[in-house]
Amino acid sequence: MIMKQMTGMFKNIIKCFVFVSSLSFSCFAQTLTDIQNNFKSYSQNNLQEKLFVHTDRQNYLTGEIIWFKIYAVDGMYNKPLNLSKVAYVDILDNQQNPVLQAKIILNKGTGSGSLFIPVSVNNGNYKFRAYTNWMKNFSPEYYFEKTITIVNPQKVPDIIPKQDKSNYDIQFFPEGGNLVNDITGKVAFKAVGSDGKGIDFKGAIVDQKNDTVIRFSPLKFGMGSFLFTPNKNTSYMAVIQTADNKPLVKALPPIADEGYVMQLSDNNSGQLDVSVNSKSDPSGVVYIFVHTRQLLKLAKEATLNNGVAHFLVDKKSLDDGISHITIFNSARRPVCERLYFKRPAERLFIEAHPDQQQYAGRKKVSVSINAKDQSGNPLNANLSMSVYRLDALQTVYTGDILNYLWLTSDLQGTVESPEYYF
Vertex 309, ends 305 and 311: CA angle to 5°? Predict the structure, then answer.
């Protein structure tokens, strides 16, 4: 369902593999167990820390206070982590300059704080960013970020130029990363408008003779996929037609003469079928590595039979959230990778009961909170709650700690309506 290019973590692991193999005779001398041990060693020495910040609202006026609570968790297990003692919070403008900053004390993985918005702050959207000193050891992509809006009633709003809503873009992502000549593979796509939201359209793949090869359309949020068998001697273009009848023409990714193609099938039988097809080494050995947030779940090898090999992955062996599935060739080099999302099985059910059904003005409100598991048994929980009035300025924010920790924090870019996948 979700595809991605080679992750930075595996790039670091590859360096480790090459270094180890240089001490031996060649990469071929390295066994599957050796690679597993290298991976586990890397994971143990590179602890990931995640932060999630619950702000009381999304939109503020100058002179108001931003209240928030910070949750620090272990990036492997998404459980509270008592590692960092201080978290740093920045409010950044469009030029990435901080307009507000704070240091928040963390105690056993949580901390609370506030920021006063001075009247000197301009109107606009700002980036709320949180991180720790430990997180500076890794890519800033792992910092927590969200968008908040600040309105200054004392300043005239800037005139925002009208966006061309017909400015569309579409991207194509071959499953595993490669399009290989005469090998059928799955190609995912995502089409968005100028606002970054998915669009509805009708599309087709045409060749140089302008003959239609495949027709396709999105399933949700401008995204979908189709099966495609490319030919190296043929050039292909994608043509999409949007609701306003404005065409968009985009070239497909390049087609390689040789290489590896992977395809994952989820037939709801409890197992994932990962097929590997290759023209480079039709009788060679390939390896599969599966990990969930750096926790190794599967490592197997298989021999290609007429260029095809199959791996079965038990879904019960995978943890909830995003798992990386990587294929290595006989030289122990990664040749394909894709992601797989497993919905969290266990859920926390929260009930809120006010002490009255209706209240008079300026009346004190008491709310009792109960946290239970799926069987209705009470659970201890560390929670935060904000109460605000829904009006023209405030709307319901759909991003929460559940979809952040299990989905969006492990993906690059923006995920539209992450709650949909839960």
Answer: 150
Distance separating alpha carbons of residues 123 and 155, to the nearest angstrom: 7
Q: Are 167 and 190 within 8 A, CB to CB?
A: no
Residue position matching structure tokens 């300025």: 393
Six-digit token string for 50:
């995640």
Question: 186: which strand partners?
Answer: 227
Structure tokens at 223: 């995204």
Phi-psi map region of 165: left, alpha, beta (phi>0 left; psi -120 to 50 alpha): alpha
- Spans of the chain below 70 pLDDT: 1-31, 159-166
Condensed to tens digits (0 to 9), the pLDDT of residues 306-362 reads 999 999 999 999 999 999 999 999 888 999 999 999 999 888 999 999 999 999 999
- Residue 295 CA to residue 138 CA, distance in Å, equals 18
In the sheet where 49-55 sits, what is the strand order? 49-55, 65-74, 110-116
Is 141 in a helix, a strand, or coil?
A: helix
Q: How far apart are CA 326 and CA 288, in angstroms?
A: 6
Question: 32-44 vs 8-23: helix axis angle to the nearest 10?
Answer: 130
Query: Three-state DSSP class for 12?
Result: helix
Give yes or no for a contact between 178 and 261, defined as CB atoms under 8 angstroms apart. Answer: yes
100 contact partners, CB below 8 Å, separation of at least 6: 66, 89, 90, 91, 115, 117, 121
Q: Name which of 166, 184, 176 is nearest 229 in CA terms.
A: 184
Contacts of 127 (CB under 8 A, 6+ apart): 90, 91, 92, 93, 96, 145, 146, 147
Strands, sheet with 185-192, edge to edge from the N-terminal-most edge strand: 169-174, 185-192, 223-228
What's the whole-model pTM score?
A: 0.86
Q: Are 371 and 348 in contact (CB under 8 A)?
A: yes
258 DSSP β-pair partners: none
* CA separation for the pair 17, 58 (Å, rounded): 45
| Residue given tokens 């609570």 in the structure block | 69
Stated length of the chain? 422
